[in-house]
């Protein structure tokens, strides 16, 4: 643990000297903590939970002739101090690459294109209602080569190649086609179609769309998944909505996972955010999962998120 903390300290302190040579170095992070009552089938308990809190540095260096080095080193920090793995600091996206008129190429650890294809449709990402609770595909993979093309008429193509780093393993591929802007600031609609082939043992197809109608941001996702041997087949869908009214944002999300053989699962999350500043918000949510043959789960929480 001490070594891990020292490693992060060296990386962050090194960024101070890097700023003398690089055009852009940014130290950033997010602290997200909630106080919540959780019931995972054996009775309720109270906990303070760190929700994907993180710290990192990222930047770029102009090499001239239209070529730029881009890099990121990001770490997840469990601010509640009781990580299940016993390690309060873990790796998130960490890569280096080149960007230019050809697009961008990255080497390192990164979200797959299928994971990136969700855009901002999952309005409870990093919380208990995150779509990863019921679906596969939310993968951050090591040993990756990622490519994203330039945008053509708001369309963009992305490919992730995952080297399995073992003699008897199969390499994986994640491919996506994107349309529009995920933040809906440069386009009225965001949409994507993505496919995973042999990524963490699964083949997955996902389609996503999000847009704004009369001030309400509406989103939807469809997903099919199965293990590479053809078992564990699932069809699922998710719909989400959010509406901003002054400093308040109301949010709702429903997700379903229908497994071949009748083991169906579904989840509903309702919540609200209150903006204290551009960097800081208070939030609350209630999530309930109907797990069919498994234990139902319920979560009621209030928290704070600070971005820097």
Automatic annotation (TrEMBL):
Keywords: Cell outer membrane, Ion transport, Membrane, Porin, Signal, Transmembrane, Transmembrane beta strand, Transport
GO cellular component, as recorded: cell outer membrane; pore complex
Chief location: membrane
Cellular location(s): Cell outer membrane
Membrane topology of the entry: Multi-pass membrane protein
Source species of the chain: Cognaticolwellia beringensis
GO BP annotations listed: monoatomic ion transmembrane transport
Assembly with partners or alone: Homotrimer.
Protein name, per record: Porin
Signal peptide from the UniProt entry: 1-22
Domain spans labelled Porin: 9-291
InterPro entries per the UniProt record, alphabetical: Gram-neg_bact_OMP (IPR050298), Gram_neg_porin_domain (IPR033900), Porin_dom_sf (IPR023614), Porin_Gram-ve (IPR001702), Porin_Neis (IPR002299)
GO molecular function: porin activity
């Amino acid at each position: 643990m001490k070594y891990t903390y020292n490693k992060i300290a060296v990386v962050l302190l090194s960024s101070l000297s890097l700023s003398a040579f690089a055009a852009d170095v940014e130290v950033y992070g997010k602290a997200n903590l909630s106080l919540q009552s959780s019931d995972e089938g054996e009775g309720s308990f109270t906990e303070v939970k760190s929700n994907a809190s993180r710290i990192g540095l990222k930047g770029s260096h102009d090499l001239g002739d239209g070529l730029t080095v881009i890099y990121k080193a990001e770490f997840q920090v469990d601010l509640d101090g009781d990580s299940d793995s016993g390690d309060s600091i873990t790796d998130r996206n960490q890569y280096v690459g080149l960007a230019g008129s050809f697009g961008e190429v990255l080497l390192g650890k990164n979200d797959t294109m299928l994971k990136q294809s969700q855009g901002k449709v999952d309005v409870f990402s990093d919380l208990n209602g995150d779509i990863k609770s019921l679906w596969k595909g939310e993968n951050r993979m090591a040993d990756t080569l990622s490519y994203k093309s330039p945008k053509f008429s708001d369309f963009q193509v992305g490919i992730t190649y995952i080297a399995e780093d073992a003699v008897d393993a199969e390499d994986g591929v994640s491919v996506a086609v994107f349309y529009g802007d995920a933040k809906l600031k440069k386009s009225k609609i965001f949409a994507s179609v993505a496919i995973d082939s042999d990524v963490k043992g699964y083949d997955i197809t996902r389609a996503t769309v999000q847009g704004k109608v009369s001030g309400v941001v509406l989103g939807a996702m469809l997903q099919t998944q199965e293990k590479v041997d053809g078992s564990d087949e699932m069809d699922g869908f998710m719909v989400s909505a959010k509406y901003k009214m002054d400093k308040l944002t109301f949010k709702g999300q429903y997700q379903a996972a229908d497994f071949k053989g009748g083991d169906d699962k579904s989840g509903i999350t309702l919540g609200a955010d209150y903006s204290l500043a551009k960097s800081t918000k208070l939030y609350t949510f209630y999530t309930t999962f109907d797990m069919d043959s498994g234990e139902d789960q319920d979560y009621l929480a209030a928290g704070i998120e600070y971005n820097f």
